[in-house]
Write a sequence for this structure.
C-alpha cells in the first residue's frame, strides 16, 4: 500500500505543481503585425508560480479524478498480506475413518499422525487445534487431539467418497477454535486430492497413511441369454482388481439351496479387470461373493434379483396369434405384444412389439432404404422380401423411427423401432404362403431384440455384508492399493509465508473493470476538452 | 475564456431610427427615393442647361435662355431616386483581431446597421466580402426578408476554418465581384482597418472606379491599435505569425519606442492609401473608429462610437456629397 500511496501522492502533487506553475508569457496575435518593428527579446523568467490553488480549473479536477479512479482500481493489488502472526493459527486435523481405514494398521497410523500434529501444534505459539473425524455417514468434531473419537468403531456399512474429506475443510463445523481454520491436515489412506481455492484458502497438508494392500471388488453383474435367445441364461460378473497379482479370483453364487462357483478370467476390455459367466440357478434373490482373500471385505459380496430367464414373461394381447408355449404370462411391467392400430396409444413405459397386417396384401416391390445391421433385420433375405413386399404403414406413432422402408408412393414403413423403452412395429407373421418363413423371422427378431432389454432392466445389484446389510458406495473404498506417500513436512504449519488465508480485501472486485472504464472516459474527456482549450486563437 | 460577442449589433432599433432621423434633412418626395445624387433627373434643385433633344419634356424648356441663345435650351435638375448602398467587407484574418473585440464583428454590426438604415430609407444594399479565402457571392438586400442571407453570410465568415494556415496566409485581393456589384449612383462603403497591402494597386483601381458614374466611396476605418497596444504593453509576450510575418518562439517585450515606430509605420501606410484612393467621390474622414484600451464594456463603447462616427453624417445626410 505504501508504494501505491507514494505513487498517488506524487502524481497528485505533480498535477498540482503543473497547474500552479504557469508560463510567464502571453501568446498574442496582433492585427498590425506587418507594421511591428523587431522587439527586444524579453529577459523576464519564462514561468511563474501561482499560489492560487486551481480549484476552479476543470482540467485540474479531471486529472485528479483520473488518478483517484486508477488508484481505487489498483488499491487491492497493493495491499500487504495480513499480519499472520496476529491472527493466531487455527489448525484443523481431518481424520479419515471410512471402512478402508480398517485395512491393516491404518487406523492406528492415523491416530499416531493426529497425535504428531497435536504435538507440533503445541510447540507453536497461539495456535489452536481441532480434530474432525469423517466417515461415510457423519463428521465428528473433537477439540484438540483427543483420542476419544478414535475409540468408536468404524461404520462398515457406508463407503465414503474423497469429497467427504474436503467438505470437512469448510468452516461450518468451527467450534473447537475461535474462528475458521487457517490451515488443515488431512489424514487418510486416499491419495492427495486437489483443494479448490474457494473451498479452503489456507495450506492443506495431505498425510497419507497405510501401505498398499491388494483388493478385489465385484463391480457389476448382468444377465445374458435365456428367453428366446440362442444362448443359455447366465450371469456375467465383472470384478475390479487393485494391486492384485495373485491367482485368478474365484466367485461363488448361491440361489435358494443351490450354489456354484467359477474361476474368473482376465477381462480383455478392462485393464486390471476380471470377468466370468455364472450359471443361472433360477430366478429370485441371488448372492455372489468373491472367494479369494483380499484387503477389503466391503466390496466382495453382491446381491441381485435375478429375473425369470429361462421362460420369457410376455403380456400377450395378440388375438390373431396364440401365445407360444415358451412364454409365460406376463404382467403390466413385462413385454407387451399386441396388434397395431392406427392412432392407438402405444405403451411408453415398457417394451412393446406391435404387429400389423402387412403380408396379406404383399406384392413385389423394392426396398427403399434400411438400417444396416439392425438386429431386427438379422437373417432377412431382401431378395425374398422384395418379391413379397408387405404393405407398409404411412404414419408411425410418436417415438418410432423407420428401420425398413419400401419404395413407392409415400415410402411406406415396413419395420420401425423405438429406442427407450424398446419397441418394434413389424408385420404380423402368417401361417402360410411364400412369405411365411420371412414373416416369422422378422417377428422373432422383434421379440428377441425387445426382450433383451427387458432382461437387463430386471437386475438390481447391491453390495451387502456377510450379514446381509446393504453397503452404499462400497466401490468408493475399493482402491486400497494406491501408492504410499511419505510423511509430510509439518513445518509448513509454522511458516507464515505459507499460511495464507483468503483475504477479502484482495479478492477481485466487480468494481475494478467499471473503475477502469470510468478512468478511461475521464481520460478521453480530459483529452477532448484539451483540444478545445488549446485550440489556437 | 474567449469573450463572445453577439452577432446582432448592440444598438436598439429605436436608437437607430432616432439616429437616422437626426441626419435626415427633408421628407422624401412621393415615389422617389430619399437621396439626391450627382445625376440628372427631376427634382426642384437646378443642375445645368443643355440643348434640347427630341423627347425632352417641353415643360423643361427655359424660354428666356432659349431666346438669348436663339436655340431651344432645357434646364436639367438633380434626380431623386432610390440609392444602392454597396458595403465592402474586409475579411482578412487580421480583421478577426483583437481577440474578444475583433474588428470583423464590429464591421458586421456596422454593416447590419447601415442595411437597416438603407431599408428604412427604401434603398437597396449589396454586401461584398473582400479578401476572403472562400469565394462568397455578394448578397443583395432589397427588403427585410433578405436580411437572413446577410446573417448567414456573416456566420459563414466567422465560422470559417480557424487553423494556423488561415492566419499565416497572405490575403489576396480579387475585386471582380466588387466591380460587378457597382451600380450607378451608388454609395460604396468600405469597412476595414485599412492596413491591407495593395502592392499592385488593384484595390486603388477599384476605389477610383467606385467614384465614377455618380458614385461616392466612403471609408469606415476601424482602428484597434489602442487595445492591441495595451495588450503588448502588459508584459512579456510571444507573437503568433500573421499574414506571412513570423516572429518565431522568441519572448518579446514592447518598448515605448518600438510601439511609436509601429504607429508611425501605420500612419505612413494610411497616408499612402489616401493618396492612392484620392478622387472626387472619396469620403474618408480623418477620425477613425478608435477602439478602447480594453474589451470591458465593449458593446457600450460601440454604441457611443457608432453614434459619433465621423462618416455617418456624410453617408446619411440627404444633401449628399
Amino acid at each position: 500500500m505504501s508504494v501505491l500511496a507514494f505513487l498517488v501522492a506524487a502524481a497528485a502533487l505533480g498535477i498540482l505543481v503543473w497547474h500552479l506553475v504557469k508560463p510567464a508569457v502571453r501568446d498574442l496575435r496582433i492585427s498590425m503585425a506587418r507594421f511591428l518593428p523587431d522587439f527586444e527579446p524579453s529577459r523576464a523568467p519564462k514561468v511563474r508560480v501561482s499560489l492560487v490553488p486551481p480549484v476552479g480549473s476543470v482540467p485540474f479536477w479531471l486529472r485528479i479524478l483520473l488518478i483517484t479512479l486508477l488508484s481505487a482500481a489498483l488499491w487491492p493489488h497493493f495491499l500487504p498480506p495480513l499480519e499472520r502472526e496476529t491472527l493466531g493459527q487455527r489448525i484443523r486435523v481431518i481424520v479419515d475413518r471410512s471402512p478402508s481405514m480398517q485395512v491393516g494398521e491404518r487406523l492406528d497410523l492415523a491416530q499416531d499422525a493426529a497425535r504428531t500434529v497435536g504435538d507440533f501444534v503445541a510447540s507453536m505459539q497461539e495456535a489452536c487445534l481441532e480434530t474432525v473425524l469423517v466417515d461415510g455417514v457423519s463428521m465428528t468434531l473433537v477439540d484438540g487431539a483427543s483420542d476419544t473419537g478414535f475409540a468408536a468403531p468404524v461404520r462398515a456399512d457406508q463407503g465414503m467418497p474423497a469429497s467427504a474429506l474436503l467438505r470437512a475443510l469448510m468452516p461450518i463445523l468451527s467450534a473447537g477454535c475461535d474462528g475458521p481454520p487457517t490451515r488443515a491436515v488431512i489424514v487418510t489412506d486416499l491419495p492427495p486430492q486437489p483443494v479448490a481455492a474457494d473451498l479452503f484458502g489456507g495450506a492443506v497438508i495431505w498425510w497419507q497413511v497405510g501401505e498398499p494392500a491388494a483388493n478385489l471388488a465385484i463391480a457389476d453383474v448382468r444377465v445374458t441369454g435365456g428367453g428366446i435367445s440362442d444362448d443359455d441364461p447366465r450371469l456375467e460378473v465383472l470384478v475390479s482388481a487393485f494391486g492384485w497379482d495373485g491367482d485368478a479370483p474365484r466367485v461363488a453364487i448361491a440361489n435358494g439351496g443351490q450354489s456354484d462357483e467359477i474361476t474368473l478370467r482376465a477381462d480383455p476390455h478392462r485393464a486390471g479387470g476380471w470377468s466370468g459367466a455364472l450359471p443361472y440357478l433360477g430366478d429370485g434373490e441371488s448372492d455372489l461373493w468373491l472367494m479369494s482373500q483380499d484387503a477389503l471385505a466391503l466390496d466382495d459380496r453382491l446381491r441381485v434379483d435375478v429375473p425369470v430367464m429361462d421362460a420369457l414373461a410376455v403380456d400377450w394381447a395378440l388375438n390373431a396369434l396364440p401365445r407360444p408355449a415358451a412364454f409365460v404370462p406376463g404382467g403390466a411391467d413385462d413385454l407387451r405384444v399386441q396388434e397395431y392400430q392406427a392412432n392407438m396409444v402405444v405403451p411408453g413405459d415398457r417394451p412393446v412389439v406391435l404387429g400389423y397386417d402387412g403380408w396379406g396384401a404383399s406384392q413385389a416391390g423394392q426396398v427403399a432404404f434400411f438400417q444396416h445391421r439392425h438386429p431386427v433385420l438379422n437373417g432377412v433375405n431382401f431378395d425374398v422380401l422384395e418379391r413379397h413386399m408387405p404393405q407398409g404403414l404411412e404414419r408411425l406413432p410418436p417415438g418410432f423411427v423407420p428401420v425398413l422402408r419400401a419404395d413407392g408412393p409415400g415410402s411406406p414403413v415396413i419395420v420401425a423401432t423405438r429406442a427407450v423403452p424398446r419397441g418394434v412395429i413389424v408385420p404380423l407373421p402368417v401361417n402360410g404362403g411364400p412369405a411365411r418363413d420371412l414373416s416369422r423371422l422378422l417377428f422373432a427378431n422383434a421379440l428377441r431384440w425387445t426382450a433383451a432389454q427387458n432382461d437387463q432392466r430386471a437386475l438390481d445389484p447391491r453390495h451387502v455384508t456377510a450379514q446381509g446389510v446393504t453397503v452404499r458406495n462400497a466401490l468408493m473404498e475399493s482402491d486400497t492399493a494406491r501408492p504410499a506417500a511419505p510423511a509430510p513436512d509439518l513445518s509448513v504449519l509454522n511458516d507464515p509465508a505459507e499460511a495464507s488465508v483468503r483475504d477479502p480485501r484482495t479478492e477481485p472486485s466487480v468494481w475494478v473493470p467499471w473503475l477502469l472504464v470510468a478512468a478511461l472516459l475521464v481520460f478521453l474527456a480530459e483529452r477532448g476538452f484539451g483540444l478545445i482549450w488549446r485550440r489556437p486563437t | 475564456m474567449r469573450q463572445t460577442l453577439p452577432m446582432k449589433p448592440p444598438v436598439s432599433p429605436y436608437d437607430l431610427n432616432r439616429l437616422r432621423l437626426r441626419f435626415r434633412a427633408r421628407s422624401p418626395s412621393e415615389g422617389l427615393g430619399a437621396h439626391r445624387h450627382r445625376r440628372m433627373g427631376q427634382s426642384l434643385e437646378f443642375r445645368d442647361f443643355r440643348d434640347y433633344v427630341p423627347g425632352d419634356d417641353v415643360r423643361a424648356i427655359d424660354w428666356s435662355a432659349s431666346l438669348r441663345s436663339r436655340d431651344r435650351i432645357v434646364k436639367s435638375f438633380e434626380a431623386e431616386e432610390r440609392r444602392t448602398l454597396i458595403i465592402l467587407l474586409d475579411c482578412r484574418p487580421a480583421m478577426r483581431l483583437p481577440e474578444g473585440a475583433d474588428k470583423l464583428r464590429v464591421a458586421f454590426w456596422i454593416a447590419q446597421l447601415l442595411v437597416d438604415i438603407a431599408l428604412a430609407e427604401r434603398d437597396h444594399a449589396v454586401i461584398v466580402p473582400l479578401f476572403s479565402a472562400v469565394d462568397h457571392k455578394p448578397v443583395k438586400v432589397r427588403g427585410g426578408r433578405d436580411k437572413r442571407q446577410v446573417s448567414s453570410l456573416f456566420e459563414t465568415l466567422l465560422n470559417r476554418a480557424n487553423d494556423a494556415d488561415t492566419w499565416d496566409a497572405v490575403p489576396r485581393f480579387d475585386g471582380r465581384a466588387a466591380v460587378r456589384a457597382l451600380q450607378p449612383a451608388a454609395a460604396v462603403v468600405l469597412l476595414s482597418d485599412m492596413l491591407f497591402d495593395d502592392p499592385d494597386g488593384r484595390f486603388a483601381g477599384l476605389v477610383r472606379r467606385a467614384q465614377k458614374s455618380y458614385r461616392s466611396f466612403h471609408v469606415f476605418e476601424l482602428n484597434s491599435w489602442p487595445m492591441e497596444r495595451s495588450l503588448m504593453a502588459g508584459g512579456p509576450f510571444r507573437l503568433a505569425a500573421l499574414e506571412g510575418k513570423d516572429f518565431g518562439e522568441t519572448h518579446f517585450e514592447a518598448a515605448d519606442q518600438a510601439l511609436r515606430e509601429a504607429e508611425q509605420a501605420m500612419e505612413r501606410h494610411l497616408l499612402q492609401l489616401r493618396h492612392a484612393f484620392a478622387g472626387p467621390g472619396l469620403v474618408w474622414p480623418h477620425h477613425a473608429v478608435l477602439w478602447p484600451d480594453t474589451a470591458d464594456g465593449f458593446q457600450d463603447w460601440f454604441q457611443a462610437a457608432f453614434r459619433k462616427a465621423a462618416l455617418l453624417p456624410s453617408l446619411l445626410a440627404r444633401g449628399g456629397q
Notes: The mean pLDDT of chain A is 84. The interface with chain B takes residues 24-44, 46, 535-537 of chain A (CB under 8 Å). The radius of gyration of chain A is 41 Å. Residues 183 and 480 of chain A are 27 Å apart (CA to CA).
